[in-house]
């Protein structure tokens, strides 16, 4: 038997094809009915959960959550998505589909399986375009312009239900037959189905096995047998009839302080879900730390696959999908080369490759010759090639993100204090005006501590970073982003941006010749063949550049979540989103998705271990109190 892959990779399904229908070699069972899999899905899951009628009744800005215990070929998901297209309300609402798969199909097998259903081709093509790499953990896919969100967990089913935060409106209890795959139908699994349900949640399953029906009844579902599909004479459907609150109230007014990449991605995310937002900043969008002309989409994955590495990886792959919406505008997926630029980095990369197994659609190792070919210029070493990464125009992207009918902007306004009053937060400004909102998210980078309404000190710090604008004629133009002790982007117009310095104890907001000289020296050390022999190295004193202050935490991990008062109590309706450091372009899209989930009460896109990693309480020191 083959050994399981090293983390974070996961074993893929092994398929046998019989008359065009895929069958699992591991479980010896088909993925869908040989008679007509799509009609079986419609009969068993769509009709017996009354989806057509229920979709049309969702309130504006609301959501409907379907959960499933075996993603398989994705046929059930595509059928639900197709039904959503036909029956969803005309106003903005979101279909969430939460599914688990222990042995996911490869992209090639998924493509072949879904080709059996021509009427689903447009939806299947979009799913395949966004289909994640085969790595363990949670993957959030945003489809249909945000109208459909797929939360896909690759791993053990009970691990998934413990890690995910959601409550379903309907369950598709699918998966291979209980006799062939008993782990999926254990009592522990069914108790998790109950825990993730709300009053009125329905369920349907193709099986009519007595022990399954009894376990569901013991969990509180009212169950009944009904006519099955095709050769299966009977199936089960049920409903949770317990008492409980109705759907949570729609959040009130929302204000976001800070229009950098964090604030703009969050504002756009909420607006596209149908929630009006006010975006407040003392300057125009993308004029702070997000204001560089170019920025690389880059993370440094840890040697050990721990929570920190999982967060970086999940953020990177989500960001690659997110920025794809602006390909050819502000997103340039040239690929990214992470050089083994020193003996220490070469040793780190060797240990990293020995201890981990990553799919090639995330990265693959390259020799010096291969690196030189990919970069379009000679390099001194090999490294790691990230084919789906590249570079962005952050300021232009921020402006576009902030331009939405449901985003009201209040620029040129500097907030100096937050005060709770009469169930709202009041934002006092330097200009003497006051704004009020039911929920407030502080996204002000290194200025965030000045707005947190708690006395004391926070483990947040500002780190000065200066980039240098290299004249295009002075450099050998790279074809891709190159990272090492500095990064270098392909040219944009007549410049290529490089940097950035890491000045922990320097508060100078203006570019300096010394910092330009440092960037040139480090870049020359990393890429000796970069500078044109004819032009020579550019003179530091003649360069343009830009200074920005990164906000980072004591543990160099981002912060996203509700504010705590230092005594483990949550401050009502106040959130913090900062500490992204030099990786803001990579972290912002996923963490905005997570915060939007929290703010709207929709299924959360992150597992509990990563939610804990982001908590604000770790920033606070003892003795703090609300000011």
User: What share of residues is helical?
Assistant: 25-40%
Strand content of the residues, in percent?
25-35%
CATH superfamily of the largest domain: Vaccinia Virus protein VP39
Describe the sheet with the most strands. 8 strands, mixed
Mean pLDDT: 93
Structural class: alpha/beta
Radius of gyration: 26 Å
CATH class category of the largest domain:
Alpha Beta
| CA-based shape | globular
**How do the strands line up in the largest sheet?**
6-7-5-4-8-9-11-10
Give the N-terminus to C-terminus distance in angstroms.
62 Å
- The tally of beta strands, per DSSP, is 33
**Named CATH architecture of the largest domain:** 3-Layer(aba) Sandwich
Helical stretch tally:
16
CATH-defined topology of the largest domain = Rossmann fold
Low-confidence regions: 623-627
Number of domains: 3
Structure commentary:
The chain is of the alpha/beta class and 627 residues long. It has 3 domains: 15-240, Rossmann fold; 251-333 and 388-458 and 557-614, FAD/NAD(P)-binding domain (3-Layer(bba) Sandwich), CATH 3.50.50; 336-387 and 461-553, D-Amino Acid Oxidase, subunit A, domain 2 (D-Amino Acid Oxidase, Chain A, domain 2). The protein is built from 16 helices and 33 strands. The strands form 7 sheets. The protein has an 8-stranded mixed β-sheet with strand order 6-7-5-4-8-9-11-10, with helices on both faces. A hairpin with a 4-residue loop joins strand 2 and strand 3 (29-30). The longest helix has 17 residues, at 307-323. It is globular and about 80 Å long. The N and C termini lie far apart (62 Å). 48% of the residues are buried. Mean pLDDT is 93; it is low at 623-627.
């Amino acid at each position: 038997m083959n050994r399981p892959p090293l983390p974070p990779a996961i074993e893929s399904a092994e398929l046998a094809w019989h008359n065009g229908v895929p069958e699992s070699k591991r479980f010896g069972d088909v993925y869908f009915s040989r008679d007509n899999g799509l009609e079986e899905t419609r009969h068993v899951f769509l009709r017996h959960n009354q989806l057509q009628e229920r979709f049309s009744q969702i309130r504006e800005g609301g959501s409907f959550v379907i959960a499933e215990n075996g993603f398989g070929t994705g046929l059930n998901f595509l059928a639900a998505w197709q039904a959503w297209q036909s029956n969803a309300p005309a106003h903005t609402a979101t279909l969430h589909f939460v599914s688990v798969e222990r042995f996911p199909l490869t992209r090639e097998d998924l493509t072949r399986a879904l080709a059996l259903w021509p009427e689903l081709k447009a939806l299947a093509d979009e799913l395949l375009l966004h289909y994640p790499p085969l790595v363990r953990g949670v993957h959030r896919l945003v489809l249909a312009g945000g109208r459909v969100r797929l939360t896909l967990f690759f791993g053990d089913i009970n691990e998934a239900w413990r890690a995910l935060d959601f409550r379903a409106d309907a369950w598709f209890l699918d998966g291979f037959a209980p006799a062939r795959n008993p782990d999926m139908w254990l009592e522990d699994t069914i108790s998790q189905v109950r825990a993730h349900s709300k009053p009125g949640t329905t369920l349907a399953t193709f099986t009519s096995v007595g022990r399954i029906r009894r376990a569901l009844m013991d969990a509180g579902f009212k169950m009944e047998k009904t006519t099955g599909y095709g050769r299966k004479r009977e199936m089960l459907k049920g409903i949770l009839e317990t008492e409980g609150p109705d759907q949570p109230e729609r959040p009130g007014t929302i204000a976001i302080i800070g229009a950098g990449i964090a604030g703009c991605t969050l504002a756009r995310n909420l607006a596209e879900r149908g929630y009006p937002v006010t975006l407040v900043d003392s300057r125009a969008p993308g004029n702070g730390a997000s204001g560089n002309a170019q920025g690389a989409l880059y993370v440094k994955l840890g040697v050990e696959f721990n929570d920190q590495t999982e967060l970086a990886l999940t953020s990177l792959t989500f960001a690659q999908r997110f920025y794809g919406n602006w390909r050819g505008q502000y997103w340039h997926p040239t690929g990214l080369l992470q050089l083994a630029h020193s003996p220490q980095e070469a040793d780190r990369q060797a240990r990293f490759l020995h201890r981990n197994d990553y799919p090639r659609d995330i990265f693959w190792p390259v020799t010096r010759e291969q690196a030189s070919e990919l970069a379009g210029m000679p390099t001194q070493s090999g490294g790691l090639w990230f084919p789906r990464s590249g570079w962005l125009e952050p300021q232009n992207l921020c402006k576009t993100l902030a331009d939405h009918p449901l985003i009201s902007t209040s620029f040129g306004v500097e907030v100096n204090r937050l005060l709770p009053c009469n169930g709202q937060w009041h934002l006092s400004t330097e200009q003497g005006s006051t704004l009020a909102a039911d929920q407030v998210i502080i996204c002000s980078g290194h200025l965030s501590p000045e707005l947190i309404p708690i006395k004391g000190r926070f483990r947040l710090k500002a780190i000065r970073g200066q980039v240098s604008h290299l004249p295009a004629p002075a450099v050998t133009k790279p074809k891709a982003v190159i990272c090492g002790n500095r990064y270098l982007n392909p040219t944009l117009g007549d410049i290529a941006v490089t940097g950035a310095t890491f000045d922990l104890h320097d508060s100078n907001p203006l570019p300096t010749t010394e910092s330009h000289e440092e960037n040139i020296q480090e870049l020359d050390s990393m890429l000796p063949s970069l500078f044109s022999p004819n032009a020579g190295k550019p003179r530091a004193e003649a360069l343009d550049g830009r200074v920005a202050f990164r906000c980072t935490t004591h543990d160099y991990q981002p912060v996203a979540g509700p504010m705590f008062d230092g005594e483990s109590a949550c401050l009502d309706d106040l959130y913090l989103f900062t500490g992204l450091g030099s990786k803001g372009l990579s972290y912002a899209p996923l963490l905005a998705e997570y915060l939007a989930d929290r703010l709207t009460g929709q299924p959360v896109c992150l597992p509990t271990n990563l939610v804990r990693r982001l908590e604000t309480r770790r920033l606070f020191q003892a003795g703090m109190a609300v000011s």
